[in-house]
Amino acid sequence: MKGNSTLFAVFCLAAITVAYQAPAGQAPKPKVSAELRSVWDGVYSGEQAKRGGTLYYSTCSSCHGVDLNGNNDDDTPALAGKDFQKAWNGRTVNALFEKIRRTMPRDNPAHLESAQYADIVAYILSANQFPAAKAELPPDAELLKQIRIEAAKAALAK
């Protein structure tokens, strides 16, 4: 009897595993970790930031400035420096991504592809001196919700 129970449990586990795999022809979604990360961990690639810079200059710089300092005359916020870091400290990269995706550019919101908005966010992170990594910042809300914007690098736990 014990052998039948073990066999049944293995069969059920296999069935569950097959049921939760991606459909044929589709890549499985990245696994979502419950662990929060920081922009200081390197969450975008240098190449992605370069693409984002090109997009930024063509779609964002007329309002936010070439230097990302914003414009106080019309309340256009800075996207780099102390003002940006103060405004976004403690928030998630997803909050920044969604704000930009839904409202920018001001004259034609949400007209870029999600990957292009992720590239622009990567450029903004780069302009704020957050380190690059090898992997690109994904345009995936669940993953972006796990990345915190921190004005200062947290001290290493000992």
Describe the structure.
This protein is mostly helical. The protein has a single domain, classed as Cytochrome c-like domain (Cytochrome Bc1 Complex, Chain D, domain 2, Orthogonal Bundle). Helices cover 46% and strands 3% of the residues. The protein contains 7 helices and 2 strands. The chain has a two-stranded parallel ribbon with strand order 1-2.
Give a brief description:
The protein is mostly helical and 158 residues long.
Q: How would the blueprint of this fold be written?
A:
Blueprint lengths: L1 H18 L17 E2 L7 H14 L1 H4 L17 H7 L4 H11 L10 H14 L13 H4 L2 E2 L10
Parallel strand pairs: 1-2
Helix pairs in contact: 2-6, 5-6
List the main descriptive attributes of the protein structure presented here.
globular, two-stranded parallel ribbon, 158 residues, Cytochrome Bc1 Complex, Chain D, domain 2, 46% helix, 2 strands, 7 helices, mainly alpha
Taken in chain order, the helices and strands follow as: HEHHHHHHE
Number of strands: 2
Question: How would you describe the shape?
Answer: globular
CATH homologous superfamily identity = Cytochrome c-like domain
The side-by-side strand order for the widest beta sheet comes to 1-2
Largest beta-sheet details: 2 strands, parallel
Work out the count of structural domains: 1
Strand fraction band? under 5%
Helical residue percent? 40-55%
**How would you classify the helix and strand content by structural class?**
mainly alpha
Specify the number of helices.
Answer: 7
Low-confidence segments: 5-32
Q: What is the CA-CA span between the terminal residues?
A: 51 Å
Radius of gyration, taken over Cα atoms and rounded to an integer in Å = 21 Å
Overall pLDDT: 84
Task: Tell me what the CATH architecture is.
Answer: Orthogonal Bundle
In the CATH hierarchy, what is the class?
Answer: Mainly Alpha
